[in-house]
Amino acid sequence: MPKRISLTRYLVEQQRMKGHIPSQLRLLLEVVARACKRISQAVNKGALGDVMGSAESENVQGEMQKKLDIIANEVLIEANEWGGHLAAMASEEMEGIYVVSNRYPQGEYLLMFDPLDGSSNIDVNVSIGTIFSVLLKPEGVGVSEQDFLQPGTKQVAAGYCVYGPQTTLVLTVGDGVAVFTLDREQGSFVLTEENLRVPEDTKEFAINMSNQRHWAEPVTRYIDECLQGKDGSRGKDFNMRWVGSMVADVHRILTRGGVFLYPWDKREPEKPGKLRLMYEANPMSWLIEQAGGAATDGNRRIMDITPSKLHERVSVFMGSKNEVERVISYHRQG
Ligand code: AHM
Ligand code: MG
Prior knowledge:
Blueprint: H1 7-16, H2 23-45, E1 54-58, E2 64-66, H3 67-80, E3 86-91, E4 98-99, E5 109-117, E6 128-136, H4 145-148, E7 157-163, E8 167-172, E9 178-183, E10 188-193, E11 204-206, H5 217-228, E12 239-240, H6 246-256, E13 259-262, E14 275-276, H7 277-290, E15 294-296, E16 313-314, E17 316-319, H8 321-333
Parallel strand pairs: 3-5, 11-12, 11-13
Antiparallel strand pairs: 1-2, 3-4, 5-6, 6-7, 7-8, 8-9, 9-10, 13-17, 14-16, 15-17
The protein binds 2,5-anhydro-1,6-di-O-phosphono-D-mannitol and magnesium ion.
Magnesium ion binds near residues 114, 117, 246 and 280.
């Protein structure tokens, strides 16, 4: 029988043999994974678990919250606040940071998450997920929002969990990308792939085409050329896939290549993009880079951007290296 490596064992090996992660970070990742299991259970129950539909409230971004957005947020907070590994948390669903109560010991890590990504897909039984990113709290007394405003290069762990036909946890601690599949009978995540690589070339792109008329010139040019296929300058046919859940689209790209685009557009020109830098773009960028891909906002490597606020937005182009580099060159040419 092939050897089964649980997430726990993988993390212990990362800690003990490779010296990549201290024990507090190992605990943190175990706790996040446990929270994801609970969210997965809630997602699976669907209409039987009173988790569908709107919560009739708005989040800080002015978006309507679904019941599952709120449930997932609460599950992540409850699971993480008492373990002593965290100083504070930040979430897409909360305006300010959540400082760990002084009833519990304060740890040295900061956790950020999009508790339930792909909210518009919840009620239609399409893949959704949780995205998370971990930073070290800078030295000093107390913790503030300012402590979170670090570039993505400072992440010490990042990952996501996709709730799809399988529940899959994808993780990096800076030693490549590892994939774990939830074994529901055992209740544990089992390593099913290590050292994931994104092919450098691809014939697949992912973009919300309904925004085409609002795009900037470099994006229009890139997609037009893909659409012309064999008859155009690219000389090959492209395929389009768009789930509308970043977790699911990026998971497909990590698995078989492709390019994911969520560019700035003219609908709300004052916003740099739709997706959030710190708990969507940064963790996904690190995973993609660890797998040999690239991630940019068109002009800058996403992970080099120093955020100026918690819920900062960013343009996103990520995936197969050669396609992302082409997008960057189109931006340079204007
Ligand atoms: P969410 O975190 O509220 O779910 O929003 C993020 C999602 C991404 O998963 C997805 O790529 C994008 O929003 C789709 O947005 P739209 O359907 O507005 O183009
Ligand atoms: Mg999201």
